[in-house]
Amino acid sequence: MGDKRKMFIYGGIIGIIGAVLMKLGNPGNMGICIACFWRDIAGALGLHRAEVVQYIRPEIIGIIFGSFIISYMTGDFKVKGGSSPLIRFVLGFFLMIGALVFLGCPLRMILRLANGDLNALVGLAGYVAGVFVGVLFLKKGYSLGRNIDQPKIAGYIYPIFAIVLLIFLVIKPAFILFSKEGPGSMAAPILISLVLGGIVGIALQRSRICTAGGFRDVFLIKDYHFLWGLIGIFIFGLVGNLVLNFSSFKLGFEVQPVAHTNHLWNFLGMTLVGLCSVLLGGCPIRQTVLASQGDSDAGITVFGLIIGAAFAHNFGLASSAKGATQNGKIAVIIGIVFVLALAYGILLGNRSKTESKEVVNNG
Amino acid sequence: MASIVDARGRSCPEPVIMIKTAIDKEPNEVFQVLVDTYVAVENIARFVKGKGYNIIVTENNGEFSLEIKK
């Protein structure tokens, strides 16, 4: 089977599962959304108190289990870390702010588009713009540096975290919060979500699909390999929605589920997401998969996502169906300026390092 | 004697950028690229094959050595 077709089918599996999970009870156009689901988990753990978005999403647990197990079997499980962890945390943090101003990670953006939500098209334009700017930094020599071997036990932290989350989900202790209304209360049955999440985790781990990589490689090396995965998610998501969720399919901007029509902020929110994703070397889904296969830098990034989500709701940065908030708009601007300055600072630091090396080599 | 590109410990997509920079500079050179993830092997192989290079991959203790030449 050709590489492109394989990518298309792997993406297709994810797209179909997105449509199925929505049919089975997940919120509108939110069959799978890595940003929203980590945000819901942050809420369930009491890190934020937005009562409508608190739930331990079994899909995330499934993705962690799926990618951990398959990477262990195939030899991709490697425990590495130490490549600018604090910078990764901060980039993860701002990535989440951008995602929650838009209302979705890049995967949900594709799934929203696959159910007719044209606001996601504006988000996509912003995302591609952010990826493009990130690629300019890569071309100039931006790098977060080498990782090194870490104690093997560090690689089990995410699978253990997933087991703890699963126990909380099943036992429902009093200190774990579950939404009684709103998107957090809408969910497909636990076991099905867990299993389908596991399949998504396997598909993502095996294919290495990354929504940032799909566009980045087009700009960077004119390679369309990963883009085929994204096209697969869209096409199969679209067909899945037309078959399973036909009554909810609506082409247009207005009254889309868990979405708003502030074009500028949909665009800029996703610009921030695209920029952070390229600077991190992967979008939220890829970071979650990498964290599950022993990459502790990605693990730190995901903690950045979780804390970013908590901040976004504690300080009124996250948008709602009414639109972006004043605080959210300011946070996105601060995020873009800060991340650009950070990337530029890293670039300058790397350059002076290379130059001093050359002096040593020539001298 | 091959030029050595050490991309071990580099996260995606840096290994590809490193070999791209090296190839752009010296297209007819023979390169030995060192990486430590299979994803990097796949990405580099796809990239250099697209540019018309041959690639031989050898694995040693979880690390990979790639010989790349026209």
Q: How does this model look, in words?
A:
The complex is a heterodimer of chains A (363) and B (70). With 363 residues, chain A is mainly alpha-helical. Chain A contains 14 helices and 2 strands; from the N terminus they run H-H-H-E-H-H-H-E-H-H-H-H-H-H-H-H. Chain A has helices spanning 3-23, 34-44, 58-74, 85-102, 106-113, 119-140, 157-171, 190-207, 211-221, 225-244, 263-280, 284-292, 296-314, 326-362, and strands spanning 80-81, 148-149. A two-stranded antiparallel ribbon of chain A has the order 1-2. The longest helix of chain A is centred in the C-terminal third of the chain and has 37 residues, at 326-362. Chain A is globular. The termini of chain A are far apart. Chain B is α+β, with helices and mostly antiparallel strands and 70 residues long. In chain B, 36% of the residues lie in helices and 33% in strands. Chain B contains 2 helices and 4 strands; from the N terminus they run E-H-E-H-E-E. Chain B has helices spanning 14-25, 38-50, and strands spanning 3-6, 31-35, 54-60, 63-69. In chain B, strands 1-2-4-3 form a 4-stranded mixed sheet, with helices on one face. In chain B, helix 1 (14-25) links the parallel strand 1 (3-6) and strand 2. In chain B, helix 1 (14-25) runs parallel beside helix 2. Chain B is globular, with a radius of gyration of 11 Å. The model of chain B has no long low-confidence stretch (mean pLDDT 93). At the A-B interface, helix 9 of A face helix 1 and helix 2 of B.
